[in-house]
Amino acid sequence: MRKLLLSFCIFIPVSFNVFNTNGNAELAGQSTVKKNIISEKQAEDIALKRIKGDVLNVEMEKEDGKTYYEVKMITSNKVLFEVEIDAHTGKIVEVENEGKHSRKKEKK
């Protein structure tokens, strides 16, 4: 009876793939750690190599199953850019010129 119970204890987790390759008990493919994602700082550095200016904002976005960083920047002559960087590869996906920035005050 013990052998039967022991074999069920071993068979059930293995058959449902509960243990990952590290031996940690978690559902396979649902790791809590983001794997192969570049850091926000790395995304910022990549954008700065492409556009000379100041970084205003860096945000991680997920769309259509892809993860990327949007890095918003402004150049010395006040032109706004948005650089989209693949969060897995670090490759620049798109550079969008959003035009000249002017700080107009609203009239009350």
Protein model, in words:
By secondary structure, this protein is α+β, with helices and mostly antiparallel strands. It is 23% helix and 33% strand. It has a four-stranded antiparallel beta sheet, covered by helices on one side. Strand 2 (66-74) and strand 3 form a beta hairpin. It is elongated. The N and C termini lie far apart (84 Å).
Concise summary:
This protein is α+β, with helices and mostly antiparallel strands and 108 residues long. It has helices spanning 2-15, 40-50, and strands spanning 54-63, 66-74, 79-86, 92-100.
Secondary-structure-derived class: alpha+beta
Strand order of the largest sheet: 1-2-3-4
Order of helices and strands: HHEEEE
Indicate the percent of residues in helices: 10-25%
Low-confidence stretches: 18-33
Structural Rg: 24 Å
- How many distinct helices? 2
The total count of strands amounts to: 4
Mean pLDDT: 78
Overall outline: elongated
Strand content: 25-35%
Largest sheet: 4 strands, antiparallel
